[in-house]
Design brief:
By secondary structure, the chain is an alpha+beta fold. The longest helix has about 50 residues. The protein has ten helices and 13 strands.
Amino acid sequence: MNEAPRRSLRGRLTLAVAVLLVGAFGVTFVAVYRGTGSQLQAQIDHELRVDATGFARQVAPPAVAPVPARLAAAARRYLSVQPFRVTSRLLIDQVPGQPPATNEPELLGLSRPDGDEPPPAQGEEDALTRGLLSADPGYSTVEAPDVGRLRLLVVPVLWEGRTIGRISVGEPLETVRRAQEGVRHTFLLAGGLTLAAALLASYLLASGFSAPLRRMAAIARRVDEGDLSPRIGGRGRRDEVRVLADAFDHMLDRLEDAFDRQRAFVADASHELRTPLAGIRGQLEVLARQGSPTPEEVRRVERLVTGETERMARIVDDLLTLAQSDEPHYLAHEPIDLRPFVADLFELTSATARRRFELGDVPAGTLEADRTRLAQAVGNLLENAIGHTKEGGRVRLSVERGDGDRVSFAVEDDGPGIPAEQRERIFDRFHRTDVSRARSSGGTGLGLAIVRAIVVAHGGEVRAGSATGGGARVEFELPGFRVQAPEGQPETGSVPAP
């Protein structure tokens, strides 16, 4: 199925602005168009009321008896000096028993123009005339022959509470039509020009706003193809687009760093696993070339193969530990009574090698941490110190209070120490300061990397330096320590006053 063509963000923004402008233009036009008509019609209604009052006084003065013939004569005299034009008033007087009088006899069919009209047209005009004469009292809008729409006011003429006739005053709505037509033409011209200018401006603005997004999309396509080098750059902007561009570039930096570390990690892991595999293969080939190997030779090969497989198993376990360190449920926090925890761990480790082990004072209190992972981190530091010291060398473990709720674990030895330029790199995976020593001792090169992963997962920091009397010092600091208060006092994470 073919993918439907996608509209660009620039086109959608321009279209949205166009729709909003057209909608606002339409609402404004309707309001002004109808408002103009309503205002003019209200003015006409007022003028019709004034003219109707004056007409009634002329036709039926209050002091004159309401004789129908006299009323009709007075109306004809008044109408004779009130000619009807398209821009003037139409006046009609109706007295019972008398023919209607008007200032436009032809409009009511009281006189005929030269030449008879066709019967259908004449019938239509007669119907309109009857509508004029039978209109209800009050204001109404009617159609008049040869005039069009007419605003009509019908007022009854009263004498001592009884109706003696009625007068009608009307005005063509041509002026209203012309005013509304002028509004329509003005809106179409000015609105069209304004809309065109607004669309052009919105297109240019949308192009400016969407340019970084189009660049971002192009870079994303290059990243998808495997090129992690391009960056967007803010180019002097100080808005949300700059924030988005910086975040995108930062993401690419981290992604490129992650890919670099992944490639290095895979290469190092492959190399580390290839070495024991090569040793196993070589020993098996040596054993296979012998026609009847002695039991001692078989046991020797078995011993070597077992050692290498155990080493590979440690590498795999360490790799799994590092891979799991980024998972959200990597740690299982629990309160740890620090003194017995450190004492037990130190006792187990000090029995594994002939070194001068020293344990400093451990502050009394509890640490909120993962017991297994914390033991693994401290154990790795001790094993690292053992591996870098000779028999009889000094290995010291110390635990000290830090600022606030923090506590630090430090392991010192009297070995060769760590060169200053390598103190940051020793926490990288498979990094060794002495490759030959590490391989002969069976180290995987992942111990300190695991320490950093565990410490970072706890929200702590790890660093390396020099011991006081020479050698190496590796320490890490963790939050979540609570001091064990004296009996009867609450626990606190602050340092007690001296």
